[in-house]
Design a protein that fits this description.
binds ligand C2E, binds magnesium ion, alpha/beta, 44% helix, 10 strands
């Protein structure tokens, strides 16, 4: 119909923009009640040692199933939660749930959770972590908190101070998605991260033989080694990607090749002795 008005190509896009805003509004509204309705679940993805594939622990990844919206990926709703101040209660639920769940695993296994920059603007955050550890009984050494560089951009100095408080508690910090943002080396001097997580884009590139990706992974591994940090390569799906990462010297690997994110019950089943398997059929 817009063609009748003289070739106006803008008009057809207006309803779609409107629909986007409407979808956002509905999602935010549903997000508000999601915690109370118990719509969130944590999935856990294995992280293994690159050298021999032994299990080190799991990264907790949130999942949301809503009656109206169905399954919504964290890539879509986490940014919305961050913008609408809902991230604090959701993040606290993630922290407490992951700590409690990890207590049911063999005691050598760690659990990693993702924490948004917005959560670190709350001066109370370290106290919430202390409480979650105390309530669950999880030793701080078994908890890893993953942040991205965006925490340093958000507020001047406050986040770095908060991260220092967390380190003082004995928990580990990881720098997530390294290489995709500013990747300023200053952050690595400011904060004692245990692990640098190399983004999947470099893993994919390196396996395809892209010289830039290979050079960047090599440089990150060398930097981490000399700073006493470990490296985790994210998103390895194929044997070639796993072999490439191993050759480049990353300490740990996480990706579909070793396991997809799975429900808590599937994790527990991994530790059940095989002779008790018939129980699982019930
Ligand atoms: P992330 O922390 O970098 O998590 C890794 C993402 O890569 C996850 O996506 C995971 O499912 C996916 N992945 C793992 N292995 C592979 C692979 O081999 N191939 C491919 N293609 N993908 C792989 P997911 O679960 O959709 O989460 C996306 C992002 O949402 C996370 O990225 C994290 O930034 C955020 N997120 C997830 N859970 C939480 C949470 O509880 N709190 C906060 N604040 N953010 C979360
Ligand atoms: Mg992560
Ligand atoms: Mg990541
Ligand atoms: Mg990521």
């Amino acid at each position: 119909k817009s063609k009748d008005k003289g070739g106006n190509v803008v008009a057809p896009y207006v309803p779609s923009l409107h629909a986007q805003a409407e979808e956002r509004r509905v999602m935010e509204q549903e997000l508000r009640g999601a915690l109370d309705r118990g719509e969130f679940e944590l999935y856990y993805q294995p992280v293994v040692t690159a050298e021999d594939g032994t299990l080190n622990g799991f990264e907790a990844l949130i999942r949301w199933t809503n009656q109206t919206l169905g399954n919504v990926s964290p890539g879509r709703f986490i940014p919305l939660a961050e913008d609408s101040r809902l991230i604090a209660p959701i993040g606290e639920w993630v922290l407490r749930t992951a700590c409690a769940e990890a207590m049911r695993w063999p005691s050598n296994l760690k659990v990693a959770i993702n924490v948004s920059a917005e959560q670190l603007t709350d001066p109370n955050f370290a106290a919430v972590v202390v409480s979650a550890l105390a309530q669950s009984g999880l030793p701080p050494q078994r908890l890893e908190i993953e942040v991205t560089e965006s925490v340093f951009l958000r507020d001047g100095g406050g986040a770095a101070q908060l991260l220092d408080q967390l380190i003082a508690l004995g928990i580990r910090l990881s720098l997530d998605d390294f290489g995709t943002g500013y990747s300023s080396l200053g952050y690595l001097r400011k904060t004692q991260f245990s692990t640098i997580k190399v983004d999947r884009t470099f893993v994919v590139g390196a396996a395809k033989g892209a010289t830039e990706s290979i050079a960047i992974i090599r440089a990150v591994v060398a930097l981490a080694d000399s700073l006493g940090m470990s490296t985790t390569a994210e998103g390895a799906e194929t044997e070639l990607e796993v072999e490439t990462i191993r050759t480049l010297g990353c300490s740990n690997i996480q990706g579909y090749y070793y396991g997809r994110p799975m429900p808590a019950s599937d994790v527990l089943a991994l530790f059940r002795p095989p002779d008790s398997l018939p129980c699982a059929a019930a």
